[in-house]
Every structure is written in C-alpha cells, then in structure tokens.
Design goal:
The chain has helices spanning 2-16, 23-26; strands spanning 29-44, 50-52, 56-70, 73-90, 102-108, 111-112, 131-155, 162-184, 198-200, 208-223, 226-240, 250-253, 258-261, 267-279. By secondary structure, it is mainly beta. Strand 7 and strand 8 form a beta hairpin.
Length: 280
Amino acid sequence: MRKIAILLFAIVFGFKGFAQDDVNESKNFRLGLHFDPYINWYNPVDQRRFENGGTKLKFSIGAVTDFKLGGNVWLSTGIGFSFLGGAYNFLEDNNNSLQNDTYGYFLHDNEIIDFDELDPANLTSAYSADTAFIGVTGRNIRARYLTLPLLLKIKTKEIGYLTYFGQFGAINHIKMGSVKTDDTGNDLTSSNSPDLTQLLIDNEPSLFQVAANIGFGVEYNISGSTSLYGSLQLNYGLNSALKRESEHIVRWNAAAGQFERYDDKKINMHSIVLSIGVLF
C-alpha cells in the first residue's frame, strides 16, 4: 500500500513538473490524486440460484488527469488501484445430504480437486476415507484491480470559488489478484482443514471488468489552478465480475443423480462511490 501511494505521488508531481506556470494554460491539463470509498455489491443475474450476499465497504486510490477538449467539456482519465469485491449466496438447499441440488468441492488429502481431475464413476454419496465433499453456502471475494477510467466531464463556469460538473463514461478494472472466503454447511467429513475456507482463487474473478459510470460533483478552488473536489458516482457493472465456469466448484444434480460442472454463474458488480481528491 505504501509503495502504491509513493508511485501515485511520483506520477502526479513528475508530470506536474512539465506543466507551464501560466494558470490559464495549466487549467487545460490538470493532474491530481483521489481517494474513493466504495459501497460494493454483487448482483446475480440468475436470482433463482444465487442471491446478493450483502454490501461491502471497499476503496480505490489513484492519480487523475483531466484534459480540456473545448468549451466546458473535459476528458478525465488516469490510473488507480482498487480493492473491491463482494459476496453471494447459493440458493439451492445446501444441506450436504445430496438429496437436493448442492454446490461444493471435493478434497483429496486436503487438496481441492479440479473438476477435470474428478473420476465421476467414484463420486457417489459414499466417499473413500481420504476424499471429502465440502458443501458451500456462500462465498466472499476480495479482489485487487488496476483501474483505468475513461470519462467525459461537463463543467459549469466557476461561480465564486465553486465549479459544478456532471460525468459519464466507463470504469475499466483489470484483475491483479484475489482471495475468497467460503461459508460452508455441515461438512460430510471432518477431514478438511479449517484453512481451506480461505484460498487464493485468481481463476474465479474475471480478468477484465467494465462498469458504466455516471455521477456529479463540485470543485472548490483553493488558489490558482489548485482545487479540492468531491463527487458521488454510480458504477453499474456491464459484464460478469466472476467467471461463469469454476475449475473446482461442482454441482450435485439431485434429479439426474450425478455431479456436473458448475458453469452457469453470471454475477455483475455494482458500486456507489464517493470520490474525494485534489487537482493541480
């Protein structure tokens, strides 16, 4: 976290060193820093099988660059580091009895078995001594992203010390890493290790996630071209934040009496964002 903050300061003040001293010129190209608290949640598309697991308080930090396109229209972009995620629950009757549809994963010697490595002929309700099925009732995911916004801002003229603006565009997240924590039901065996409820799962969150952004805000001029600003925004996820297919979660189809690949998940990520920053 400290290294990220140092990098952002270096980017902003490094570019600022090339900026002209004339105030009117500097207002055509502005640099700044921001800190954004997020209220984040996952929204399952198929609400018959999944439900939102609640809102999460997350945040993002980054550097912002505003380019004046003409008149009162600005292009706002930059680079940020976002610490996001959410939670979702499985709605099947997940009592681990295998009498109803159930989600979970298999362990062999306390190692999770990928679906492609499973032997369907040996996966029945009677497990061998070294194999256990762990039913999953909910999942919480914490993900780290490189964030690249691309927004249009429409600003009013400065009124006193205040400039009001509206914005819209896209927020692009590129996954850097993730961790998940599972809520499990009554395990079928006691052979699993407690530390398996928290695992590195970079294979579940989507590599790229894009959200439509709309918001409004205000700038307060301190001196010259330096302003504090704040804005309230809505990020509406346009594609699934999670891969539709899991490499290790399987689904017990009670009607068919067999385990199936888990490949029907589509869960979008939405956010309400309070952005606070300074422009130079």
